[in-house]
Amino acid sequence: MPRTAAVVVIGNEILSGKVRDDNSPYLAAELRALGVALRLILVVPDEEEEIARVLRECSRRFDYVFTTGGVGPTHDDVTFRAVARAFGVGLRESPEIKRSILRRCPQPSEEVLSMARVPQGAEVLELPGVSFPPVRMGNVYIFPGIPQYLREKFQALRERFRERPFFTRRVYVAQEECHIATELRRLDEEFPQVQVGSYPQVDAPGHKVVVVLEGQDEQVLEEALQRLLELLPGDIVVRTE
Amino acid sequence: MPRTAAVVVIGNEILSGKVRDDNSPYLAAELRALGVALRLILVVPDEEEEIARVLRECSRRFDYVFTTGGVGPTHDDVTFRAVARAFGVGLRESPEIKRSILRRCPQPSEEVLSMARVPQGAEVLELPGVSFPPVRMGNVYIFPGIPQYLREKFQALRERFRERPFFTRRVYVAQEECHIATELRRLDEEFPQVQVGSYPQVDAPGHKVVVVLEGQDEQVLEEALQRLLELLPGDIVVRTE
Fold first, then answer.
1. pLDDT of B73-123, one tens digit each?
2. Which of B87, B69, B75 is nearest to B153 (CA)?
3. Lower Cβ count inside 10 Å, N or C end of chain B?
4. For residue B130, which of B93, B108, B92, B103 has the smallest C-alpha distance?
5. ipTM above 0.85, yes or no
6. What whole-number distance in Å separates Cα of residue A217 and Cα of residue A228?
7. What is the pLDDT of residue B237?
8. What is the pLDDT of residues B28-62, one digit of tens each?
9. Which of A109, A135, A161 is the last residue of a domain?
10. How far is CA A14 from CA A20, A26, A29, B28, in A?
11. Hey, how many other C-beta atoms are within 10 angstroms of the C-beta on A203?
12. pLDDT tier at B127 (50, 70, 90 boundaries)?
């Protein structure tokens, strides 16, 4: 079984529909490419207690938890406090982050210095070329909400999460789902190691459903693909990928 | 206090990074426009037990729960079963949905007919001009995952969710957050009825932060805006909206 992950997106602006979350789609694709099974995405408000509640549960259930957002200097940035609360610890000042702050803002206010107050026991992940290091607390990795900064930091860390890759095959079908549901159920039952997904396409020219097969054993996946092509009437398969 | 909501997006394809979720941003914006406070978005896999667990909790904590996805005829469509499980009831065949199926697919297989098996006690919401009616079970509204169909159905129902609207004012600031964090905290403390959000802009020409004020009392919001303009040095405010 691959390692599992949850992504916790922290931000009122997403819940109120003002900003679109670009971070969870990015992390979903990255984790998939790394072979990590993302099992849950949550978007939560900028509220310490609610974030702590969610992190406590996710940290227990999944191998990795990635948070985005809430690490700036303003009153609505409560992620470090929430992580500390989730783990039942206090805060300490990180000299590494304080140095980053002073480089950018030579006379920081109390609010700005609060960005350096990380959970006790957290690791500050200093990375070459990355200012404002990301922070890890247990299995929780804390990233900023600004997509450019999140990506820079995730890229610098990504190899530590690599697992066996997932392989994918796609079958484009010219008929609607109701004509292939029986065959797909059978395939799903015959190949428990393969994820069988069925995705109707409303406006696609030439096909009505994409069947996606996925797994970490390339040979079993190939067998599942051949079996599917055997089960479906040949004249409705537009192409495979 | 406005009514609260959660959106539960059901779909492996989003967790695996293959498909981008367009439904939760749509519902977030719609609910905001209606004055409903969206408090949580979850993306969960196509697994009956996990969906049931999440729905049980959300149904208890929020006024409305909106699900998207998992209502088609294939083996990975488990939403109705999961809702029934969350509420501890069985399934019954809906004659209204069965009629919709037969119009589209005159000789349906067993899998296709399973689309008509809704939780016992659920209301099938027949709406003018909408085929495949959405289903409500308690405070859980069940929508399809295909964005076009979700939108058609939500639009037909939206007025039943209308509350007092939220009002929004924006202040564009030429300085980074670290220069205004103290003033924002003060504003946030002085106006508990107003949500004060601070959003750094990396590539915006002419401003570095957008401060967003929101509330359901337009006059209090206006007072908060005036107070913020008083607190901030005048030369860093680029414009207000």
1. 999 999 999 999 999 999 999 999 999 899 888 888 888 999 999 999 999
2. B69
3. N
4. B103
5. yes
6. 17
7. 94
8. 999 999 999 999 999 999 999 999 999 999 999 99
9. A161
10. 6, 15, 20, 8
11. 5
12. confident
What CATH code is carried by the domain that includes residue B195? 3.30.70.2860
A65 contact partners, CB below 8 Å, separation of at least 6: A5, A6, A7, A8, A55, A58, A59, A139, A140, A141
- Are residues B44 and B152 part of one domain? yes
Please count the other Cβ atoms lying within 10 Å of the Cβ belonging to residue A4.
17
pLDDT surpassing 90 at residue A7 = yes
Are the C-beta atoms of residues A74 and B177 closer than 8 Å to each other?
A: yes
Q: Does one domain contain both B135 and B39? A: yes
For residue B9, which residues of chain A lie inside 8 Å, CB to CB? Answer: 41
Tell me the pTM.
0.94
Q: Count chain A–chain B contacts defined by CB atoms under 8 A.
A: 174
Cβ atoms of A191 and A208 closer than 8 Å: no
Residue A204 sits in the same domain as residue A98 = no
For chain A, the straight-line distance linking the first and the last C-alpha, in angstroms and rounded, comes to 25
Tokens 């190939």 -> residue: A222
Domain final residue, candidates B146, B161, B176: B161
The answer to whether A102 contacts chain B (CB < 8 Å) is no
Spell out which residues of chain A touch residue B202, defining contact as CB-CB under 8 Å: 146, 148-149
CATH number for B125: 3.40.980.10
In terms of residue numbers, what domain contains B197? 167-240
Query: B191 and B88 in one domain?
Result: no
User: Same structural domain for residues B139 and B178?
Assistant: no
Chain-chain contact of B28 with A42 (C-beta, under 8 angstroms) = no
Residues A171 and A155 reside in one and the same domain:
no
Interface test with B, best of A1, A3, A18 (most B CBs within 10 A): A18
Q: Is residue B119 domain-shared with residue B178, that is, in the same domain?
A: no
A8 and A119 together in one domain: yes
